[in-house]
Write a structure and sequence with these properties.
The protein is mainly α and 186 residues long. The chain has eight helices and two strands, in the order H-H-H-E-H-H-H-E-H-H.
């Protein structure tokens, strides 16, 4: 493994630890912050800025598409970005980005959330993989973030089941996790 790959994996691990640890109830109980959601959002942005600033180039091209395939990938990228934006707007995006602290937990399923349980995560996966030019560095980032999302969903869904009980379990049984119409991935 190259030095660049090791540094990049360490940066991704740092983001994963920050993002995961600060989201856990035990952390929130142990570290009482005046604005926990805002602090979480700012720490996440800081971790992403570290990745952006310290990321080591891995410029070898893994795949390169041109023409119609590249246009199709840009369309997928655009669709993924729309899923992120509309998924965030469908729930309380101000809470999501830390501008407002969460109120009492209330289970709701706006439109996109009736198609898949995690449209924002699906959008992120589409955005990071829909690249006409995939370098080894971008491939490392896409693979690690996809793995992180898939693991994170498991923790998030356990917390949602704990909070909402049978209501969430019924929702989970009816709506696929990420791929519309694909119940086996739920």
């Amino acid at each position: 493994m190259t030095r660049a790959a090791i540094i990049n994996l360490a940066l991704l691990l740092l983001f994963g630890l920050q993002h995961s640890v600060m989201a856990r109830d035990w952390f929130k109980s142990a570290v009482r912050l005046a604005k926990p959601r805002r602090t979480y959002a700012l720490a996440s942005v800081f971790a992403l800025l570290l990745i952006w600033r310290l990321w080591q180039p891995m410029p070898e091209v893994f795949w390169l598409f041109r023409g119609a395939v590249a246009v199709g990938l840009y369309a997928v990228w655009t669709f993924g970005l729309q899923l992120i934006l509309f998924g965030a707007m469908a729930i309380n995006w101000r809470e999501l980005v830390g501008l407002k602290e969460p109120g009492p937990a209330e289970f709701q399923t706006p439109f996109l959330y009736t198609i898949v349980r995690h449209p924002i995560y699906l959008g992120v996966i589409l955005v990071i993989w829909a690249a006409p030019r995939m370098t080894q560095g971008r491939l490392l980032f896409a693979a690690a973030m996809t793995l992180y999302i898939l693991i994170g969903i498991q923790f998030e869904e356990r917390a949602l089941e704990k909070t909402f009980g049978d209501v969430y379990r019924v929702y989970k049984s009816k709506v696929p996790m990420l791929i519309p119409g694909w119940r086996s991935i739920s």
